Amino acid sequence: MKNRLFTLPNFVTLCNLACGCGATVMALGGRVDVAFGLIAAAAVFDFADGLVARLTGQFSEIGKQLDSLADMVSFGVAPSAVLFTIYGLSPALWGGGFLSGAFGWIVFGVALFSALRLARFNVDEEQREEFTGLPTPAAALAIAALGWMWSRGELFASREMIVAVAVVVSWLLVCPVRMFSLKFKGFGWRGNSLRYIFLAAAAGLLVVWGVGGVAAAIGGYVLIGVVQHFCCGRARNFA
Question: CB neighbours of 77 closer than 8 A, spacing ≥ 6?
């Protein structure tokens, strides 16, 4: 179809981008709790734009590129801003000048590696039923959830810990570990069992732990991928 700028799916994608911009501003202003809500909203819009495109048949190359650009802000820059703010307000456990303010820029590695992750996804036709590396929305939600917990005094963070989180997440974004997609093959159990089990467990974590359950669920998602990677190699069976 013709590459029109103003379509319903593109509008939904722009809502994703707007949330990402707002999350970045809020995070750099110290409101990492608000940033979590905006990043979560961006993730909802990111899911919805593809659904709207399928329902309306309004697929376009512009929409595909716009989606990646929006994701770069919402799930790359915004979570980096969350980490940067927490870093600036946290102590250095090893004292002195160790990990001084200059090292805070390391956290923007999340944005850089998110760009690499998104670029690879755009050219890799195999990433449909499973992903190579941690999807950017999942990485962003995990970081934002940790930020929310920190803002509520539920989580202690030091500068060393923040840098470690940034490094680990950056690696997970581009690592060769294959992780399952939440796109369902119909509604039956066969072929979707792992997805149903994961979503049920994630819902339980949210009920018990609230926002902290988001980070825990994504941690479990990564663990499943890592275990399958080392135990099963590239062989996959999500039935």
Answer: 20, 24, 111
